[in-house]
Specification:
The protein has a 17-stranded mixed β-sheet that branches. Helices cover 17% and strands 43% of the residues. It has 261 residues and is of the alpha+beta class.
């Protein structure tokens, strides 16, 4: 069977997008997803996203990591599937969709710029040298002097496969505070490698940076990842809560094709 696919990227975080409203692909075809994401023998991507119908929303987003397993929320993937829905003519300037962590809203602007509303954050663990929080996916955040001095894969893997996180995994972010931005590098579980960008990761990093020094009062944080620039807006409330969290950046279609599965 031949299927049509589209390749999208958001600051270097790349995804295979498939219009699955006709249910051509089942959610339990893990080996197929893994093979499609393989960069040597498949299309190649950090993950695969199925766009499906939903009675109460514009669409539903079903996300798989490149290991073939259905995963938690992907922020850059949410921006890319919003752009894909616009390309398909399902939405225009705004959309509401359902993902594994609940409802999301997107605003689509000119120049491939997509703003995605993330879930509120209520619980944050603050350790001696780390922050642990869930922004749709679980993230471990460490602040460093120079990201370029960090072996992201080696150090990220050590935390991800530590006794505490070995079974369920955790994403690990190394954050360098610069004068007017945060520089972020992320090791992603499921991909089991460094990715050029991670949407939920930069969101977690922005929140952790606010908690690290609330006197900065930064509620709009420019982010520099290895794949490009993002912007996170947030609104603190209560002691350590955050709401109205928006992940903003470009989401671009790279190419389309067909593949025989």
């Amino acid at each position: 069977m031949k299927i049509e696919f589209y390749k999208y990227q958001g600051t270097g975080n790349d995804f295979i997008l498939i219009d699955n409203r006709q249910k051509m692909i089942a959610r339990d075809q893990f080996d197929l997803v893994k093979s499609l994401c393989d960069r040597k023998f498949g299309i190649g991507a950090d993950g695969l996203i199925l766009l499906e119908d939903h009675e109460e929303y514009d669409f539903e987003m079903v996300y798989f990591n490149s290991d073939g397993k259905e995963s938690s929320m992907c922020g850059n993937g949410g921006r890319c599937v919003s752009a894909f829905a616009s390309f398909l003519g399902l939405v225009k300037e705004r959309c509401r969709f359902l993902a594994i962590d609940g409802e999301h809203e997107s605003v689509l602007k000119s120049g491939d710029w997509v703003e995605l509303k993330m879930t509120d954050v209520h619980e944050i663990e603050i350790g001696e040298d780390y922050f642990l929080l869930d922004t749709g996916s679980p993230h471990y955040v460490i602040f460093v002097e120079d990201v370029d001095d960090i072996n992201v894969v080696e150090n990220g893997k050590a935390i991800r496969y530590s006794k505490r996180f070995r079974d369920d995994g955790v994403n690990v972010n190394f954050v360098e505070p610069a004068e007017d931005k945060l520089i972020v590098a992320t090791y992603e579980r499921g991909v089991e490698d460094e990715t050029l960008s991670c949407g939920t990761g930069v969101t977690a990093s922005a929140i952790a940076n606010y908690l690290r020094d609330p006197s900065q009062n930064f509620t709009e944080i420019p982010i520099e990842s290895k794949g490009g620039k993002l912007l996170v807006r947030l609104e603190p409330y209560g002691k350590i809560g955050f709401k109205n969290i928006w992940l903003c950046g470009k989401a671009e279609q790279v190419f389309k094709g067909t593949i025989d599965i």
